[in-house]
Write a structure and sequence with these properties.
280 residues; alpha+beta; four-stranded antiparallel beta sheet
Length: 280
C-alpha cells in the first residue's frame, strides 16, 4: 500500500512538470515555417546506374539524301536471246533519184557480137593446136597422143603416166580404127598400145589384159599370123602388143623400142587446166 502511494506521488510530480506552459512551449510545440535558404553547391556525380529496360520503338525518321553512285560491278553471264520484237513502222519514202542515162544498146550489142566472133576464132585456134600442132585425136571422153619417141614398153608406159595418162587401150572397134588411122597418117607402121600378157605364176593358158588390168575385149583383131600361131608365153617381158597401121595387133618383145600412143581422160585434163604434154 505504501508502494502505491509513493508511485502516485511520483507520477503526479512528473505530470506537473511536463504540464508547465514554459516547458511545452520550448520543447514540444514546433514553431512557424522559416524562409527558404540558399541553394547549396552541386554535389559530386553519382555512380552510373544499371541499364534500364528497352524503350518502345520511336517514330521513323525522314529518308536521307541519295548517296553517290558506287563502282561498276563485274559483268554477269550473257543472257538468253530474247524473242523477236514486233515489226516497226515503215519509214518515210525516200527522195526520188536522178534519171538514168540512156542505154546505147546498139553499141553494146556490137561489142557482144565482136566478143562472140573472137570466142569462135579462139575455139578454132585451140582445136587447131590440139589436132595439128600437138597431133591430138579426140574420141568420146578421151584424147589420144602419138608420141614419137622410141622407147621400150615399160618406159613408154611410165612416159604416159608422167604426162597424166596411160598407154592407149583400144577397147572398141571404133577406137581401134581411129588409132590405126592415126598411125597411118603419121607415116608409121606400128606403135605400142596398152595391152600386155598377164603375169602368171602358175601353169595353164595365159591371157592378155589392158593397162588398167581389165581383160582383153572379144573383138580384138589379131594378125593372121598370130591367129594361126598364137604366142602366149608366161613371161611378160616377151609378150607385149603392138598395133599396126592396118588395124591388126601382133605380139612384140617388150624390150623392143617403138613409138607409142598415150590416152588421156578429158575430165582429168580439164581438172589440170592444160593439154597433154607435146611430143617433144
Amino acid at each position: 500500500m505504501s508502494r502505491l502511494c509513493g508511485l502516485f506521488v511520483f507520477l503526479s510530480g512528473f505530470c506537473y512538470i511536463f504540464a508547465s506552459p514554459e516547458v511545452c512551449t520550448n520543447s514540444l510545440i514546433p514553431g512557424a515555417k522559416g524562409d527558404q535558404g540558399e541553394a547549396g553547391e552541386q554535389g559530386e556525380e553519382g555512380k552510373l546506374g544499371k541499364n534500364g529496360p528497352q524503350g518502345l520503338p520511336g517514330v521513323p525518321g525522314e529518308p536521307g539524301l541519295k548517296g553517290e553512285v558506287g563502282p561498276a560491278g563485274k559483268l554477269g553471264p550473257i543472257g538468253e536471246k530474247g524473242d523477236k520484237g514486233p515489226k516497226g513502222f515503215d519509214g518515210p519514202v525516200g527522195l526520188k533519184g536522178k534519171a538514168g542515162a540512156t542505154c546505147d544498146c546498139g553499141r553494146y550489142r556490137k561489142v557482144v557480137g565482136k566478143l562472140d566472133e573472137n570466142l569462135g576464132k579462139l575455139r578454132n585456134t585451140v582445136k587447131f593446136v590440139k589436132n595439128v600442132l600437138l597431133g591430138l585425136k579426140e574420141a568420146g571422153e578421151k584424147y589420144y597422143l602419138l608420141v614419137k619417141e622410141p622407147k621400150r614398153f615399160r618406159e613408154a608406159s611410165m612416159n604416159c603416166m608422167l604426162r597424166g595418162g596411160t598407154l592407149a587401150m583400144p577397147k572398141t572397134s571404133n577406137i581401134n580404127r581411129l588409132m590405126a588411122d592415126y598411125i597411118s597418117q603419121a607415116g608409121l607402121t606400128r606403135v605400142y598400145v596398152g595391152v600386155q600378157a598377164q603375169n602368171k605364176d602358175t601353169d595353164g593358158p595365159g591371157r592378155y589384159i589392158y593397162a588398167d588390168s581389165t581383160p582383153l575385149q572379144e573383138f580384138a583383131a589379131w594378125s593372121q599370123e598370130e591367129q594361126l600361131h598364137p604366142r602366149l608365153p608366161a613371161s611378160t617381158n616377151s609378150s607385149c602388143v603392138q598395133l599396126l597401121s592396118t588395124g591388126t595387133r601382133d605380139n612384140v618383145e617388150c624390150e623392143a623400142t617403138l613409138f607409142f600412143i598415150c590416152e588421156f581422160p578429158k575430165s582429168r585434163r580439164r581438172g589440170r587446166g592444160g593439154t597433154p604434154a607435146s611430143t617433144s
